[in-house]
Amino acid sequence: MKANSLLLVIVLFFFPIRLIKAQENWVLYGQSVNVGDFEGLPFRLQASVKTEIDDESASTNIGVAVYTENGVSFYKSSPPLRNTQWETHTIEGVIDTGAFRIAFGTLCRYNGKFYHDDIRIDVKTKDNQWDNIFLDDFENGNINFKQGSTSGPYGKNEKFEARIYRENTKNENNCLLISGRGVPNYGTNKIAGKYANVNEIKLYYEEYGEGHPFIVLHGNGGSIGSSSKFMPHLIDKYKVIAIDSRAQGKSTDTNAPLSYMQMASDVNVLLNHLKLDSVYVWGHSDGAIVSLILAMEYPKKIKKILAFAPNITPDSAAVYQCAIDDSKKITKESDDALTRKLNRLMIDYPNIPFSRLSEIKIPVLLMVGDRDIIKHQHTLRIFQNIPKSNLCILPGTTHSAGWEKPELFLSLMDNFFEKPFIMPDSKDWFK
User: Fold this and answer.
1) What is the pLDDT of residue 7?
2) CB of 307 within 8 A of CB of 221?
3) Mean pLDDT for the chain overall
4) How far apart are CA 22 and CA 224, in angstroms?
């Protein structure tokens, strides 16, 4: 299932990136303007942008969301921007009936310098004229864009800073410069990163540390960078092999539809390439689905699995309908072929019979948030059908539980992988 449909869509509301982005990798600077007097009118966000990136995956996006009393009625972001010369980028939409506010801003990832200027919101009046309702050219020397989300405690990052910069090559005007320094670059590390030829694709992975081999598998639309928050902890204990699943991160793809069986085969071929067996696996969401398939299809390779919030059917018996509807909507409406393909994966797959779970003979720690997108009854059935499994429901958490309560999550992870597996049973008290 998707890992981050919904950090940036649901809590930031205007950067529809389909994955959980580790907070260490990015920052958000936002602003908002009241639009109650402009219901039903077209609008556009424009901003001039240029970049000087230090990591090849570094980028910035501009994005905008329209708020009504019922929530966000419109959100859209630009593609990742890496242009080295000034370019003006535009996003257009309509201010829906009942709208009262537009939120807009920029999201910057990884290390580099991200320049922004002449950020404006215009509304098209009934006489087809564009009237400006917000403009910041930064000539007054003030930074009115605030770090962090306007709708929650997300998007702040001390490794980024913003300042007014005098741009000598742009008519000596001021601009907003956001700089990222010392941002963890897991997933874009040229030293640790490698490609393996796997099943007609190039599978990207990064290797760190020493010790027992430990595979990290991300969720739908994610990448190695999704687990940045946890990598230093894991690297201190294990030989970490973090993988970008096919069509995601830096791994390539074919024209064939995606499936979890294929992704598991990709991991198996990589393990053969690296001459690894008896590996530990931590899979989140889609990665958890893949981890269960690995244990069924390649049992000699896998020693223990932490599977966080997998589903083995794609229907409403397993997943809340809102998530299914969201994927269907994206599949129909997105203008990005990869986004449609990734959401089609979640609509069509997985289709694993519960009876097959009995083939998993290794210890499995099945974890889920108590308010996850995966239904508890589905998680419970998975637990009941894996012979050597423990179940953990993390309190006060969502599908992003590890990121929401990292200390608790890591302590449970360490206990599972570092200590002998046990399955105490209260019924034994009465024998």
Assistant:
1) 34
2) no
3) 92
4) 10
Amino acid type, 193: G
Query: Could you write out the DSSP letters of every residue in 35-102?
Result: -GGGTT-EEEEEEEEEEEESSTT-EEEEEEEEEETTEEEEEEEPPPB--SS-EEEEEEEE--TTEEEE
C-alpha distances out from residue 356 to 186, 195, 280, 308, Å: 35, 32, 21, 19
Q: pLDDT, tens digit, for every residue of 388-399?
A: 999 999 999 999
Query: Percent helix, strand, coil in the chain (nearest 5)?
Result: 25, 35, 40
CA–CA distance, 177 with 64 (Å, rounded to integer): 20
CA 224 → CA 177, 193, 235, 354, distances in Å? 27, 10, 13, 29
CB 76 within 8 A of CB 94: no
Contact criterion met (CB below 8 Å) for 107 and 26: yes
Looking at this protein, which amino acid is placed at residue 91? I
- Stretch 48-58: mean pLDDT, rounded? 92
* 102 vs 35: CA distance, rounded Å: 7
Q: What is the DSSP string of 287-303?
A: HHHHHHHHHHH-TTTEE
What is 193-421's CATH number, 3.40.190.10, 3.40.50.1820, 3.50.50.60, 1.50.40.10? 3.40.50.1820
CA distance 44 to 278: 54
Look up residue 214 and give its two tokens.
């430990």
Strand partners, 167: 173
**Cα–Cα distance between 379 and 48 in angstroms, integer?**
47
CATH number of 23-180: 2.60.120
Q: pLDDT tens digits for 139-155? A: 999 999 999 876 556 78
Q: Report the distance separating Cα 299 and Cα 303, nearest Å.
A: 8
pTM over 0.85? The answer is no
Neighbour count for residue 186 (Cβ, 10 Å): 26
pLDDT at residue number 3: 38
DSSP 400: T
Cα separation, 246 vs 237, whole angstroms: 27
Tokens representing 276 are 């690894």
Contact 270, 195 (CB under 8 A): no
**Where along the chain do its domains lie?**
23-180, 193-421
Question: What are the C-alpha distances in Å from 219 to residues 40, 312, 399?
Answer: 37, 14, 10
